[in-house]
Amino acid sequence: MNEYQIEDEGCKEVIRGAHDAMDVLNGKWKIPIIAVLCFNKKRYSDILREVKGVSGKMLSRELKDMELNQLLKRTVLDTKPLTVQYELTEYGQKFKVVIEQLAIWGIEYRKEVTAK
Amino acid sequence: MNEYQIEDEGCKEVIRGAHDAMDVLNGKWKIPIIAVLCFNKKRYSDILREVKGVSGKMLSRELKDMELNQLLKRTVLDTKPLTVQYELTEYGQKFKVVIEQLAIWGIEYRKEVTAK
């Protein structure tokens, strides 16, 4: 057994857990969508504006997928015109700690890269 | 101003930081690759085996990309045959806290989904 083969169970569990998470969060857009919904429920048009670069078609597909996976909840409000509103479910809310850590890393990474 | 427009600066910074992070970590494979390298340096063949579903071509491309973005370091060891070894840089290591939070979420998500 060489040094590369030494892997404890905790390590494997982390790898598997991260894989599971990334399976649910596949694609380019789900993490940015959660980031945008982290602090507040939002209307479709707000999400479209705030998730930079996403197309309407792609956003609709992703939101549907995330609703099926119980990451977010869709509500149609009885306004004129109708308003469609999205918010994170309890599971989705729990992802906030990941987003926060990710953001801290992203901010630090930007600093390091722009300092060079 | 309605309730949807109320967003403080902290919120915007988190969204931007998460975006920055996801820009560097674009695609399906970089987060699983970091997860696999989190605990130890590894040989190319080990990474290929442990990152489930990745092709050799894709893995090489991703590793090169991550090396350019200073997330990992590549070392060629003078063995017979040559061994190529990858390890996380200091920045890459800092991503470990994100992976851990992601894994905790993934493990919990799996439990909730399989319990139903």
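Helices of chain A lie at 9-24, 30-37, 44-50, 56-68, 90-94, 96-115.
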